[in-house]
Amino acid sequence: MRLVEAIVDANHRALAGDEKAGLRLAEHADALPVVALTCSDARLNPLLPEVVGIPEEQFLWVRNAGNVVSHPLGSTARSVALACLLEGAREILVIGHTDCRVARQTISALLERLAALGIARESLPENLQECFALFGSEPQNVHTACEMLRNSPLISPRIPVHGLMVDLQTGRLDWLVNGYNTLPAVGEVALATLQTARQTVTDMREGMDYRVGSRAFSDLPVGQLVAEGADWLGARLNTIEELWQAMQETTRSETAVGLSAGPSTHKEVSEAASQSSRVIPVPPPLTFSKSRKPEP
Question: Are residues 82 and 164 part of one domain?
Answer without folding.
Answer: yes
